[in-house]
Design brief:
Layout (H helix, E strand, L loop, with lengths): L7 E2 L8 E2 L13 H4 L9 H11 L13 H19 L30 H14 L4 E6 L8 E3 L6 E3 L8 E8 L2 H4 L5 H27 L4 E4 L6 H7 L4 E2 L5 E2 L7 E8 L9 E2 L2 H7 L2 H5 L23 E2 L5 H11 L5 H5 L9 H10 L4 H11 L7 H5 L18
Antiparallel strand pairs: 1-11, 2-12, 3-6, 4-5, 6-10, 7-10, 8-9
């Protein structure tokens, strides 16, 4: 954990979210904005169709703007291929693994469960294995039916299909995969989309490797990416970070520049506790993501139970983004956005002493000074995609993240 993040357990039952049991409703994946672009004319358009097509086949027309040229899309789509391979391999069986269905490319395991000295020992071991297999972060939460999708989506029928999880798999291992900060620094661009694709592609392989290890020990493991259940509540409950104004999990190690995956298992594990290190207090005074959001999808207001549309979950008081507006901008620029990640003051290099010093200020009573420092520093300014491509072979990517946009 970076120096200065004075992390402590979060004793609030829902890790910062106030849930009203009378109005809360579990979420159907049918109403996710991405899935709505396939059936709901509020979201579906020629631009959204072109957006999805651009990932599935080479484009023959290219925008002249830097970051949206042929090589940018070529890199983005290559980065996504690891995820796409698994999502497409079972389409004939009405499965889109990693997005609508759990990953299934696993061998059968042992029939004799390996005994552990204690749940604490098992947890230490599985986290060690997770990091070895490629995870940058790992935590453990209790399975919670509230975050399980009530329905998945049938790609054949275009409507709902059952979504179930064995209740005996009562633990959830959550892994975090850091995304490439120098790619995200060029957002919005197709080049920045490569950071997202790489995060997911690495996540898929890591989830499968960890799950196979668990199965080899004689326990059950169901690896899931964006499918099956909401990842953000699990990441928070697993102690990996705090919820931010932009609707993302802010981690002490990488800020919001992380992708999460989940493994449902019956491995006897010790549950982690949510943490607090000043994110809520910083987000209360920082509106960087709201101001920078091209689609104005991020609220300036205090947390509330306000619903923008059917892509939001009722009954929770929190910062809630407008998913329709957000995805509409993605379709407009023909790539995912990530501007909110780029401008977030927690997106920084915590290997740097200066950034660790910033974290110390941000985690305490001098957070307003930390915010002013961030605003004056130029950190978070968009980097020209040309700068990324023009790096010398031996140059590190991180070194260019604060260079100004070429005008």
């Amino acid at each position: 954990m970076p120096l200065g993040h004075q992390s402590k357990p979060d004793d609030r039952a829902d890790a910062g979210w106030k849930i009203d049991d009378d109005t809360f409703e579990r979420f159907s994946q049918v109403f996710d904005a991405f899935n709505r672009s396939g059936w709901d004319d509020t979201v579906k358009s020629e631009k959204s169709d072109a957006f999805w097509a651009s990932y599935a086949q080479p484009l023959h027309e290219w925008r002249k703007a830097r970051g949206f040229r042929r090589r940018d899309y070529a890199l983005r789509n290559a980065a996504w291929w690891g995820t796409d391979f698994f999502s497409e391999r079972m389409e004939a069986e009405d499965r889109m693994e990693g997005f609508l269905d759990p990953l299934s490319a696993l061998r059968d395991g042992s029939n004799e469960p390996e005994p552990f000295e204690s749940s604490e020992a098992a947890s230490i071991e599985i986290k060690q294995v997770a990091l070895l297999m490629g995870a940058d972060l790992a935590g453990i939460a209790a399975a919670d039916e509230r975050w399980l999708y009530t329905e998945s989506v049938s790609i054949k029928e275009g409507g709902p299909k059952p979504n179930t999880m064995d209740p005996s798999l009562d633990k959830v291992i959550v892994i975090g995969q850091a995304m490439d900060a120098s790619l995200n620094a060029t957002a919005p661009s197709a080049l920045a989309g490569a950071a997202t694709g790489l995060g997911y592609s690495h996540d898929v392989i890591t989830l499968l490797l960890i799950s196979q290890y668990i199965r080899n020990l004689g326990y059950e493991a169901v690896p899931t990416l964006n499918d099956t259940a909401l990842a953000i509540p699990y990441a928070i409950k697993a102690g990996l970070g705090e919820y931010g104004r932009h609707g993302l999990v802010i981690t002490p190690e990488y800020g919001p520049n992380v992708r999460f995956g989940k493994i449902f298992t019956n491995l006897p594990l010790e549950i982690d506790v949510p943490i607090r290190f000043g994110v809520e207090e910083m987000c209360n005074i920082c509106q960087a993501c709201s101001t920078a959001c091209p689609s104005q999808a991020i609220t300036y207001d205090k947390p509330s139970a306000k619903l923008h549309n059917i892509s939001n979950i009722p009954g929770i008081t929190k910062w809630t983004t407008d998913a329709e507006a957000c995805f509409g901008y993605w379709a407009k620029i023909n790539s995912d956005c990530s501007v909110c990640i780029r401008v977030c003051p927690y997106t920084r290099d915590y290997d740097s002493f200066v950034d660790r010093l910033w974290a110390r200020l941000a985690g305490g009573r001098f957070r307003r000074l930390a915010l002013l420092w961030d605003q004056k520093s130029g950190r978070g300014d968009r980097v020209s995609p040309k700068d990324w491509w023009d790096l010398d072979p031996g140059e590190t990517r991180v070194e260019i993240t604060n260079k100004p946009e070429e005008r």
